[in-house]
Amino acid sequence: MSENEVNGPGATSATLASRWHHGMATASFKGQGAAFWDAWVRSLPPKQEHSNYVDEVLHRINCKKDDAILDVGAGTGALSLPLAKCVRQVTALDQSEAMLETIAHNAAAEQISNIKLLHLDWTKAQLGIDFDQHDIVLVSRSLPGGDDVLRCLDLINRAARRMCYITWKADGHNPLEATLCTQLGIPYHSFPDYIVLRDIILSLGIIPIIELFTARSKHCFGSLEQAYTQIVRKHTLSNTDRQLALDFLADNLEQEDGSYVQTSDIRWALISWPCNVK
User: Which CATH number is 3-173+189-217+268-274 given?
Assistant: First the structure.
């Protein structure tokens, strides 16, 4: 089999989807399932992340005052909340009830009343039953559907009346995570490259627009335990390896005003395409 048949213009949708699924399944520091994300968001310290990612994305989304936007995998509302101030309605969809509770709390604090919360697993969602079409569908940093990415992308496309936007890391390799894995003697696997996602979308007959940008991210942790919970994620380590990880983080995270800080410049790919207006 040639390289193009594995990845590129000659590859089939099924082949590319299989590569995507393998990459998602083997990624070292992924989070998975509603229970995981419920626990993860509840462990977040207040004002943990400072990043210009949101500003960079908002600058690139072409939305109108009368638009309805569906934010898939909305998380804590990083984009849902500011978008709600610019458009008619935002539907924040997430499988994690705790994430949606955070959005509701922050929306109330900011007196935002045009966000609809939808507690739903996108991989099981049905257009026309669970929700209707929106002008824009946005999937930020959280593409669902590792098991069935083709169905999920098709649903994203059908759910949008005008535009679809997906963000994914342009380079999934994380130096800190990779070095930590080396220290622990466990394999490191990064998330699949955005090129694979681009080629899957192309294989569906959609020609996407790709825009790369860099966002500086600063994560502040009040303790090493918080840093451990947020960075190590799904790995269950022995007491010895857990202490090795804590020592590694103590040596490799910056210290600032009593907090442990992780600063990084992350390259993102914004993948978008217009939908046919019917």
Answer: 3.40.50.150
